[in-house]
Amino acid sequence: MEFSETAGDLQPAPAVLFRNVTVKAAGITILEDVTAHAPAGGCVAIVGPNGAGKTTLLMALLGQLTYAGSITMAVASDGASPRIGYVPQRLQFDRGLPLTVLDFLVMGEQRLPLWLGVRAAARRRALSLLASVRAEMLAERLLGALSGGELQRVLLALALQRDPDLLVLDEPAAGVDLRGGYLLCELLERLRLERGFTQLMVSHDLGTVTHHATHVILLNRRVVAEGPPDAVMTPENLSSVFGLHMGLAGLNLGERHGCAVCRQEDPHA
Amino acid sequence: MPDLSWLYDWLTAWAPCACLRAQFMQRALLGLLLAAPMTAVMGVQVVNFRMAFFADAISHSAFAGVALGLIFAVSPDWTMPLFGVAVGLAIMAMQRRSALPTDTVIGVVFAAVMAFGLAIVSRDRNVARDLQLFLYGDILTITETEIVIQAALLLAIMLFQFLAFNRLLYIGLNPVVARAHCIRVALHQYLFAGLLALVVMLAVWAVGVLLVTALLIVPAAAARNFARSAGGMFWWALLVSLTSAVAGLLISAQDWARTATGPTVVLCGFVWFIASYVAASVRRRVNP
User: Fold this and answer.
1) How many CB atoms lie within 10 A of CB B33?
2) Mean pLDDT calculated for residue range B274-288
3) What pTM was estimated for this model as a whole?
């Protein structure tokens, strides 16, 4: 997929452009020749079965692993290099640490050691960040005592702290119940429109993707399809990636069958 | 030798009990009041980084450090702390690079430095007797030079804690997220390991190889139970450590006790820990 100057006239430059990205680990090709883009200001979902390389693509974007090809990001509106906010799928941390949510949000920003207290300005900033993710009531709670959904929102607040141009989320709805996942998506959509960042997320939840994403990258080691949700999430595309009868009652059986199909397809890939 | 007589005069005037009128007791009190805050605040990060075993390995390298001094005919006052720092940095470098689990790497180095120290010492019976001092330590024989060195190190440690506390907390929580937040993880880890090694080696003089880790771990463990915030953990560790040090010294000097100072200090810390454990259990029951 090429981006010519004429395409730039119709829509702004993409926030992220993956060109021929290939990742190999221990002789196995995890991503092969991935060329895709994330339109600026959009909500981009990366969808695909387990082992499709979704998280790998994010890690390449975050510079956590080496890859062939190129990943370019649009410069920020103020001309600075783009800032990325990252919300990990789950944070591995020491849950016994006596650390409040406020401490957690302040410790990366404030130079004054926390044992001399939290500066009023830092506290105000942290509280307004928490309010923006509807978590202001969590400020004095211990980080280790939060539920999955609460922790997710605190991590989101942390990712928003440096006013990112690109917000990267790995399975934002994992470990959150259905209602929580729905609320999180609503929240993200509102934040995205308010703050104007580009949202790039990996998701398993196809329902969420069809409702909220403005652009979908269907990935199965290679890009199977890319574009607006209704153009990408067609029964043909989904069954070719996830297996037959996607979305029907016999989902489990279908998924198992689907994985077998994926493995059979690999030699031809 | 620096003149500390003004301090002793002040202490004699304010001493809460007769036992503190003796100058060796005053020196011991000073030594403990300098050592306790260092081990307390560094202990907070030792617990957060799960480095108790690391500290143990450093303290046990004291034997090898002294042995090196004997071989090269250099004062052990120099070789012991320098060797401790070298061992600390070496373990840190190996555990960052090696695929082996951290405790395995430390265990290997621990064995090597212990074996080296014992091998040298076994050649010379006279040295073996001196090494008793390292096993149990003796705060009552602390010299004024050592007090001045401790004061200098305490200043350095407090400066380090002032500048790096928040970052160390971040690294302890999750190094990957800390790196994503532009924190220089490796630099902080090496600095911490080097300073911790110095603190451990100085504390060996006071309480001996066997009890150094206790001085680091016990106040921080109690602080973790008491504290409800990151800053609280720091202050609780200081409070527990300082009160244990003073109480331990005073109790050990009483006629009815007549115990060694180091172990008495550690036992006072342990009483604090039990109290903190009960407090944490009650809090969990009241507010699950």
Assistant:
1) 17
2) 88
3) 0.82
